[in-house]
Amino acid sequence: MNEDVYSLKYESLKFLRCGNFGSISESRRIVDGRETITKVVTVDSIFGEWVLCEKQKNRQIPSEIHFLERLEHPNIIKFIEYFQTKTSFIIVTEKRNSGIDLFEFINKQPKLEEKLTAHIFSQVLSAVAYLHSRNILHGDIKEENVVIDRSLNCVLIDFGSSAYFGPDVAFSSYSGSPQCICPEVLRREIFRGPEQEVWCLGVLLYTLLHFDYPFHSDNDILNSNLVFNEEISQDMQEVLLKCLHPIAVCRPAVSYLANVDLFKQPIELNLYTFYDIFDAGQLTARMKN
Q1: Which of the residues 66, 102, 191, 195 has an alpha carbon 20 to 30 A from that of 178?
Q2: Looking at domain 8-94, which of 3.40.50.720, 3.40.50.620, 3.40.640.10, 3.30.200.20 is its CATH number?
Q3: 260-263 contacts, C-beta under 8 A, 24 or more apart
């Protein structure tokens, strides 16, 4: 398939941002008006581990396409299709209605009860637990790669850094966010992957609770010097201390975290709206139907 075929099927709307491996824009499927997200990945920007050769299908594709085609989970962005040109791959995924990423969400300083924060985080946990059960690493868990919609539903996006892991697989390089770098990477050690993603989840959870990153220097990271707001419960502090343990093998598995009572407690979502969490006037311009 080529760019001409894409242009016949989709209308480009608004440029959003540049991701790790390409540009991301809002788009619309012409046949039914469905709103979508289009990511254009240039062939020159992907190489080595980010390209997978699928012999059974006789094709070489970005690892992002390989993984998205195989994933089906309510908290993972849904893949629609892709197109290939001589210079790029065009990846089309669903668009979450009225969605913003958690980076923007956190910057708005939402009024979050710990129970609601736990509910938001539990959805990311569920997605990552699903990935790890299939021996897949997301590779770049951070606020910008989680989209939350007006109903407080979350999906994990951007699988451009994803990879398989296993007992015979080790990593020596890190491609994620500097704010999420873990001690073993700073020490230039070989790492397996799952423990590093638990660290990233800990950073995400801490940031949701404090509206700030847990660490601001390499020394803080290496020693896991954590400071908690006084309103953070003891149970939540214990989870954060486990996730952000400086020794990788001491961190819990994602499957364990997903079953912690804190993240399984029932919540009445009808009691919460964006207009409760934010200033209503702030939202009107940004979050339209």
Answers
A1: 66
A2: 3.30.200.20
A3: 261/235, 262/118, 262/235, 262/236, 263/118, 263/119, 263/121, 263/122, 263/125
- Topology of domain 100-271, CATH: Transferase(Phosphotransferase); domain 1 (1.10.510)
What is the distance between the alpha carbons of residues 114 and 102, in angstroms, rounded to a whole number?
A: 16
Return the active site residues. 140
Higher-confidence position of 268 and 285: 268
Over residues 236-244, mean pLDDT: 98
Mean pLDDT of 99-104: 91
Taking the C-alpha atoms of residue 25 and residue 60, their distance in angstroms, rounded to an integer, is 24
| Domain span(s) for CATH 3.30.200.20 in the chain | 8-94
